[in-house]
């Protein structure tokens, strides 16, 4: 019988070096989650980015066409876990072959059926951000999405784009935009659960669940890249 940790409990219990690219930060998408002692009534407002539907459709087509010739590969996430006075800090970085707008939509849009729990009518990432976590005294974190200008070296020559607009101009609208996602998760089990061997189990299942979520995001992006666009 599995232990429901909130963040990990909603994912099926049958759980399942990024490519070298030129990247510069421009507009970023950030979201913050809250701990049990800090409900979503006090949560920081989520930063918004401009969502250009036509540009997103163009990017989808660019990714689809490129996938036929040179399939994109997202490496497993880089994970670092540290502990200080019983508080775990899990830092995870990974790439996704999709624009920041698209990844943000996967994280937050209920219509992203692959990441929506229809039985309990809630979104996976929404649960991560807003609900209490069983056995956890502290459970909070944030995620950030940054653009990766993956074709800049090939299409922009000597120009190093510093924004989406610069990249679009120097690549003549033919440059794909991928995403770098950074997740920082802090968690601390309640007393008794913070002692071995239970603490080892909780640490392990939290890490495994997060890696599963990352793989789900990357796999979903692959499906989108392979899908026919209208």
UniProtKB/TrEMBL annotation:
Coiled coil: none annotated. Residues 31-43 have a biased composition (Polar residues). It comes from the Eukaryota. InterPro entries: DUF220. Residues 122-180 form the DUF220 domain. Residues 21-30 have a biased composition (Basic and acidic residues). Transmembrane segments: none annotated. Residues 1-49 are annotated as: Disordered. PANTHER family: DUF220 DOMAIN-CONTAINING PROTEIN-RELATED, PUTATIVE (DUF220)-RELATED. This is DUF220 domain-containing protein.
């Amino acid at each position: 019988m599995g232990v429901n940790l909130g963040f990990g409990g909603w994912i099926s219990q049958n759980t399942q070096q990024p490519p070298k690219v030129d990247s510069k930060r421009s507009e970023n998408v950030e979201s913050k989650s809250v701990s049990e002692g800090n409900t979503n009534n006090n949560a920081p407002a989520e930063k918004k980015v401009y969502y250009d539907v036509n540009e997103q459709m163009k990017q989808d087509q660019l990714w689809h066409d490129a996938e036929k010739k040179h399939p994109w590969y997202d490496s497993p996430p880089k994970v670092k876990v540290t502990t200080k006075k019983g508080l775990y800090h899990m830092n995870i970085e990974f790439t996704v072959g999709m624009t920041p707008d698209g990844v943000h939509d996967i994280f937050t849009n209920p219509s992203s059926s692959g990441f929506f729990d229809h039985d309990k009518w809630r979104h996976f990432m929404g649960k991560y951000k807003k609900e209490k976590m069983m056995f956890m005294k502290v459970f909070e974190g944030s995620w950030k999405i940054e653009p990766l200008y993956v074709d800049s070296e090939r299409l922009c020559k000597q120009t190093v784009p510093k924004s989406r607009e610069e990249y679009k101009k120097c690549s003549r609208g033919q440059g794909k935009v991928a995403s770098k996602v950074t997740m920082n998760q802090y968690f601390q089990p309640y007393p008794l659960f913070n002692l071995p061997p239970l603490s080892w189990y909780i640490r392990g299942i939290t890490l495994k669940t997060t890696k599963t979520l990352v793989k789900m995001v990357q796999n979903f992006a692959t499906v989108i890249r392979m899908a026919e666009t209208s």
